[in-house]
From TrEMBL, chain A:
Main location class: membrane
Tagged with keyword Membrane: yes
Annotated protein name in UniProt: Carbohydrate ABC transporter membrane protein 1 (CUT1 family)
Species classification: Bacteria, Bacillati, Bacillota, Bacilli, Bacillales
TM spans (from-to): 12-32, 73-94, 106-126, 157-181, 202-224, 263-283
Domain ABC transmembrane type-1: 69-282
Domain of life (superkingdom): Bacteria
CDD domains: TM_PBP2
PROSITE patterns assigned: ABC_TM1 (PS50928)
GO annotation, cellular component aspect: plasma membrane
Organism from which the protein derives: Paenibacillus taihuensis
From TrEMBL, chain B:
Pfam families: BPD_transp_1 (PF00528)
Keyword Transmembrane helix attached: yes
Protein's name in the database: Carbohydrate ABC transporter membrane protein 2 (CUT1 family)
Transmembrane stretches, start-end: 12-32, 67-90, 102-123, 135-154, 187-204, 240-258
Localization in the cell: Cell membrane
Length: 293, 273
């Protein structure tokens, strides 16, 4: 009874326990088991043997894996800067006094509500070769020669994926930037104006430096999101042509269907390293850049 | 000069709005097209108003069952996320002891790990706990995946609240535990909105894990039902779009209800952390 009373009085100290239990069982435990599996030749059928780091060595001789790493990184390198640039432009535009800006913000965010899988199907309908809507319009106006197979050429297919991704999630980056803009006190702009600063120099010397926290969140979430891209590629190009737009996460899941579980898990761990390096480098670089109010 | 630049600004805004609405219009166009029409008529996408697609999609893909599955999994997981991560965020923000610091740093580190990379070991875990093709295991899994972000948002926000919020309740005889549920929980509503929108949409739209752990037809969620129109029968655009639109409605409705606090919640939770 005594201990029960003591426990209930101190319950607030243990309130984080359910969260870590849940996370421990469904995330940390599988993650640590994954390290074990990655060191075996597990294939889901016969008993696995310990093979050391052979899977990790194989990775570096795997052309398809190398293509996928390149695709994934190119996708992230294209997506993250564009998302931030357009998100910031949108936020600056919609932060001003304007009739109906609330509705406009909501509409700009709405594409992010659609599942990326369905979004991929929608753009496939628009862009698919010959039977797509763009092809149809070009034929109607007599510009058949402009009818390029966007999804059939590796470079343009990747560009299409980047643009669709940017266009779907620009509302998300915009909202973070809007939140950041609202946290900048109006007096700062007032003072700058009295000191003779124009719009442009206010933007460079007040807005951008004070937006660092928002930029940081956006860059980190964009890096994580675009390096683990999956759904939209499945529905828009299915990794094609060939493996030209296949991302690492798709490769990992396809190998599961092909029963290469040991190797697939090793590639997954390598993917984790690929994601965590740019995030940490970025956080380290920006640490000193933050300005306290 | 001023009116010109204002007009220019509104023109840009109108353009932004239009391109954001493209997917919704395309879905509507496809959903209202007759099943037989494979070719376009004219230059613009004008639908035929063939409303029967919705009825057929409803029957053909058992969309009612899929929506039910999505609703059960999403609402169950979101409720669990809000309860578990808000109390964790409170304890971490207010009572700094070593275990709490360890829990917080662990979650923060894992914020960068995409869930997809643990699929193999997770599959054997789900198999051994008989969680494949069940609602409860999917709820627990989805909630677990959302823990890092939501605990982070809640704890950052609660740190910005003055301690006096709970103190008066403590004087009235509450414990810190009951004071949280009676008082603080109401103050964190902006973060709750942000968490409901961010994690709720992610779970509603989840495909990468649903495709592995919900393989039975009667366990299918909305994204799985939509993708079926491409795999089993070739591309059935009209039914795919009708199904997608029906599945989109609950997501848009929840977003519109909670969006009022969304910016506030993201701002307080994320930017101050």
């Amino acid at each position: 009874m005594q201990t029960f009373r003591k426990l209930s009085a101190n319950l607030h100290l243990y309130m984080a326990v359910p969260a870590i239990l849940l996370f421990g069982v469904f995330f940390i435990y599988p993650l640590t088991r994954g390290i074990g599996i990655s060191l075996t030749d597990s294939n889901g059928i016969t008993a696995p043997h310990f093979i050391g780091i052979r899977n990790f060595i194989d990775f570096f001789h795997d052309d398809r894996a190398r293509t996928d790493v390149r695709n994934t990184i190119l996708f992230a390198l294209g997506s993250a800067p564009l998302l931030n640039m357009f998100g910031l432009l949108y936020a600056l535009l919609l932060d001003r006094k304007m009739a109906g800006k609330g509705i406009v913000r909501t509409i700009v965010y709405l594409p992010a509500v659609i599942s990326p899988l369905i979004m991929g199907y929608i753009w496939y309908f628009i862009l698919q070769p010959e039977r797509g809507y763009i092809s149809h319009v070009l034929q109607q106006v007599g510009l058949e020669s402009w009818d390029v197979n966007w999804l059939g050429v590796s470079s343009s297919a990747l560009v299409v994926l980047i643009l669709v991704n940017v266009w779907q999630y620009v509302g998300m980056t915009m909202i973070i930037f809007l939140a950041g803009l609202q946290s900048i006190p109006a007096e700062l702009y007032e003072a700058a104006r009295i000191d003779g600063a124009g719009d442009r120099s206010s933007l460079w010397h007040i807005t951008l430096p004070l937006l660092y926290p928002a930029i940081k969140i956006n860059v980190v979430t964009n890096i994580i999101g675009s390096l683990s891209v999956f759904d939209i590629i499945v529905s828009l190009t299915d990794g094609g042509p060939g493996y030209a737009t296949e991302s690492l996460s798709i490769y990992i899941l396809r190998m599961l269907y092909g029963n290469s579980t040991g190797y697939s898990t090793a590639v997954a761990l390598i993917m984790f390293i690929i994601i965590i390096i740019p995030v940490f480098v970025f956080l380290k670089l920006t640490r000193k850049r933050e300005y306290e109010l | 000069m001023k009116t010109v630049s204002t007009a220019f600004k509104y023109a840009i805004v109108a353009f932004i709005v239009l391109i954001a609405l493209i997917p919704f219009y395309v879905l509507l166009y496809l959903a209202l097209n007759a099943p037989s029409s494979h070719s376009f008529r004219g230059l613009f996408l004008v639908p035929e108003f063939h409303f029967a697609n919705f009825a057929e999609a409803w029957k053909g893909s058992k969309i009612d069952k899929s929506i039910f599955n999505s609703l059960v999994i999403t609402s169950g997981a979101v409720a669990l996320i809000v309860l578990v991560s808000s109390s964790a965020g409170y304890s971490i923000a207010r009572f700094r002891h070593k275990a709490n610091a360890l829990i917080f740093n662990t979650l923060l580190l894992c914020l960068t790990i995409p869930a997809i990379i643990i699929t193999v070991p997770l599959y054997s875990l789900m198999k051994s706990i008989h969680g494949i093709n069940t609602h409860w295991a999917m709820i627990l899994l989805m909630a677990a995946n959302a823990m890092p972000l939501s605990v982070f948002l809640y704890s950052s926000f609660i740190r910005t609240l003055p301690k006096e919020v709970e103190e008066s309740a403590i004087i009235d005889g509450c414990t810190y535990f009951t004071a949280f549920w009676r008082i603080t929980f109401h103050f964190v509503r902006p973060v709750t909105s942000a968490v409901v929108i961010l994690t709720g949409l992610g779970i509603w739209n989840n495909y990468g894990q649903a495709v592995f752990f919900l393989q039975k037809q009667e366990m299918r969620t909305v994204p799985l039902a939509v993708s079926m129109f491409f795999q089993t029968y070739g591309a059935e655009w009209n039914k795919m779009a009708a199904t997608a639109l029906i599945g989109l409605l609950p997501a848009v409705a929840v977003f519109l209800v909670f969006q009022k606090y969304f910016i506030k919640g993201i701002m307080a939770g994320a930017l101050k952390g």
